[in-house]
Amino acid sequence: MKKLTLILSAFFLISSPVLAKGKKAGSEQFSCEDSIPYCKQMKSCAQAKFYLKQCGVDRLDRDGDGVPCENVCKK
Prior knowledge:
Elements: H1 2-19, H2 45-53
C-alpha cells in the first residue's frame, strides 16, 4: 500500500508541469484558452503582456509600440 501511495505521488509530481503547460509560472497563471481579449478586462500588465506575446492578441497593442494596454501598462 505504501508503494502504491509513493508511485501515485511521484506520478502526480511528474505530471503537474504537463498540466500547467501554456500557463505562466508563479502566483498569476494565464492561458491562451481563456477568453479575455480586451484591455478593459486585464487585471495586470503581466496578463496583458502574456496575451500579446504568447497568444498573439495584437489588438492589445493598438499603436504598435510593443506595450499592450497602455491603460494597464503605464509607461
